[in-house]
Every structure is written in C-alpha cells, then in structure tokens.
Design a protein that fits this description.
Blueprint (H helix, E strand, L loop, with lengths): L5 E7 L6 H16 L5 E7 L6 H7 L3 E4 L5 H11 L4 E4 L4 E2 L4 H9 L4 E5 L2 E3 L4 H17 L6 E4 H6 L11 H14 L4 E4 L5 E3 L2 H6 L4 H12 L6 H9 L4
C-alpha cells in the first residue's frame, strides 16, 4: 500500500461500546476512498482507558496510540504526532461518519483557497430539548464557519498553528479552528463546511444529563472561552468523569 494521504485520529477514553460503531462507518468510507488509488490510516489515541478500547482498535486494524494525559487536546495531539498523512482529520469516538467523507475532504483541500473545514453533524435522535439546543448553536456556526463532525486540515497548517491547545480541557476544537482561520486569512484562505457528508453524533450526553441540560452548558462554555470562569468541577464531571 502507498503511504497514507489522510490520517484519521480518534481520541478515545473507555469507548469500547461506541468505537465499533464508528469504525464500521470509517471502514465503509475508507473503502470508497481507497478505490481511487489513495491510502489512509486510522489512529485511535487511547486516553488512559480502563476498558477494551485498545483491544477494539487493534482488532479493527487501527493504530492504537497511548495518550496518558487525560486531556482531549493532548489525546488529539498525540495521535497527530504519529500520523503519516499529509491531511489530518479528527472525529470523536461516539460519532458515525458518512461513506463519502474522505472523498469530500480530498475535494475540499484540493482547493488552495481552503485551509481547513468540518463535515458538520446531525443527531442520532431528536427531542424538543435537543432541537432547541441545536437551533441555538447554528447561528454561531453560520457566523464563524466553525463546525463539528469530522474536522480536517493539512498537516503543515496544523503544525504551523501549534495543534490543539493543551492548556484547554474543553473547547480545544474551537480554538484550533480559530487559529487556522487566522492563518488562512493571512493567505486569502477560508474555512469550509462540507455538510453533504454530515456525521451522526450520539446523544449520550442528553441521555445522561437530560434533554434540556445543554442550554446551561452552552453559557458556561462561552464564559470559559472568554476567560470569565474556570468551572473545573463541571468540566471534570461533564467531559472527563463520565459514565462509561
């Protein structure tokens, strides 16, 4: 096989339950991408899991990389450090990706006018509370171009902005896209959203914390980004000390 052009990096902490579902969707997308004669690799950054996450990754043919620092940014960066692809893509372990994902990434970054982008995402189920939370987030996405799902950029640009900011335990994805947008503007490049290949996100946080909980967390996350509060206990409980 040729050297991989795309490296997909999956940060994972105790994802034995959700990881197989994601990797099944990744395999379908990989086969479509590799049918064009290109290659890719899948890296699972095992963020100090205590379950069978590393075993699941190995059984599915992924590179399992230990990332002992319990920090999402550190796990993402750890995967990126060992990646061999010219293009880096990142997705969370509880997502499922579209079969055309890697083809769409290749097309988007085929333009020199694009610095980075994201696929966007939809939810695996809906309720009134989830729909309201989603609707309140969308104006931010439209105004900034920052989206979720599968986030991608060229390795050289990722390294130029220093990767994910490991000083942040949350919102590291927002600050990466902000840094990439700044770099891109200096060159006349832009962020893109390739929403025709939206990923599917799990609703496990809504299952655990309630259908309306996200309204409160959106305000806390905004305050955190602005440096108005740290709320470390909430970060630990919501993002790191979760039930797996």
């Amino acid at each position: 096989m040729p050297e991989p052009r795309i490296s997909l990096i999956i940060p994972a902490y105790n994802e034995e339950k959700f990881l197989p579902r994601l990797l099944q969707s990744v395999e379908a997308a990989r086969l479509k991408y590799e049918s064009t004669g290109r290659a890719m690799e899948v890296i699972v950054a095992d963020n100090a899991s205590t379950d069978g996450t590393a075993r699941v990754a190995a059984e599915r043919g992924c590179r399992a990389v230990p990332a002992k620092n319990r920090c999402l940014a550190a796990a993402r960066n750890g995967g990126a450090r060992v990646a061999r692809g010219e293009i880096l893509a990142f997705v969370d372990a509880d997502f499922q990706i579209h079969p055309q994902t890697f083809l769409a990434i290749e097309e988007a970054l085929g333009s020199e006018k694009v610095i980075a982008g994201a696929s966007g995402a939809t939810l695996e189920r809906w309720s009134v509370g989830i729909a309201v939370s989603f609707a309140l987030l969308m104006p931010f996405v439209w105004m900034t171009g920052f989206d979720t799902g599968v986030v991608f950029c060229r390795r050289a640009d990722f390294e130029a902005v220093g990767g994910y900011d490991e000083r942040r335990r949350i919102a590291e994805d927002v600050t990466l896209l902000l840094a990439l947008r700044r770099l891109g503007r200096s060159r006349g490049q832009r962020l893109v959203r390739v929403t025709r290949v939206k990923a599917i996100a799990s609703t496990r946080k809504f299952d655990e914390f309630g259908e309306w909980h996200y309204l409160k967390f959106m305000g806390l996350a905004a305050a955190y980004l602005l440096g108005l509060t740290k709320f470390e206990d909430t970060i630990e409980r919501y993002w790191y000390r979760v039930r797996r």
